[in-house]
Amino acid sequence: MEEHSNSSNAKERAQSNSSAEPRTEEAKAHHYDASKYQRPSVTVDVVIMSLRQKDLQVLLIKRRSWPFEGMWAIPGGFVNFDESLEDAAKRELQEETGVQDVYLEQLYTFGDPGRDPRTRVITVVYFVLLDSERLQVRAASDAADVSWFSVYDLPPLAFDHEKVLNYTLNRLRGKLDYTTIAFNLLPEQFTLRELQRVYEMILHKKLDKRNFRKKILATGILEDTGAKKMEGTHRPARLYRFNPAAEHKL
To answer: Which protein family is it in (predicted)?
Structure first.
């Protein structure tokens, strides 16, 4: 999370120095002195979740340096003075996991004063759900290791990342009723059984097959492709795809 490279001290100095950037001409004209005010550091964290091995899993990195050296954490890091929050999130994600070109949704901001032992740190959390088959994950320069973990069987986490992941999971569950976010975990074509499995993994409970299918088909957001696929020893199952034109029906 908030800094994972061996050059953390240098980066923290750069972060501190960035707050002393020259004022704008307008600020000078109005004699505004920003040094009179304390400045918290700002970081971004990126929660990536995917369905793997019939389980809902999250991508974590192992920290290289103090604090929490050797512990698992959400990928992320400090925001540079001259970059947007989203640009910082994408940069840190690529630096630590090799993941790039993914759509990020801003989720929540965590700012408890004691959440980071180094200094006052506020973090903006981003979130993405996707098919892990689309990713080539590797531990990049700012992480000792990178791996997938079940959201229901996590290792001890650095900082307040257990709290962050619990919040993310609860928000994800809430979004199932009014968004199409679950479709991000599926291939372009899928069966109703596969779609139900996604909902069950996120909700962490079994759903009644008949009620689920009746409800999801009634929304009109699925399009029958006309194709079928075998699922075990059962008769071939219909393949559906998400119909973007009907997204407003959820």
So the answer is: Belongs to the Nudix hydrolase family.
